[in-house]
Known about the structure:
single chain
Amino acid sequence: MWDHMWNGSGPMFWPWGLVMGFFWIVVFGIVIFFAVFMASQWQRRQIAGGPGEGPTGGGTPRPKESAREILDRRYAEGELSREEYEQMKDDLQGDEQGPEVSGPQG
């Protein structure tokens, strides 16, 4: 007579089925959220240039390029025309000499 209540199919056990179902939904939700979060972090590091480069890199940062090195690299990559390169190079050389100092005005 009481067998149906103790074999897991009776009214005493059906709430545990709901609780366990909810538990597994929460667990799978956390796993999926964590996987999406880690994939986005990985993608962000790939876009930033990998370890050591960019704001999220974990390695040694690459040395900072001087303005002239950046200009030379951009010209070598074809980003600048010869005229633009020469003009910017002249501007940089003027900056390296320092501002012109004029005497007292008056």
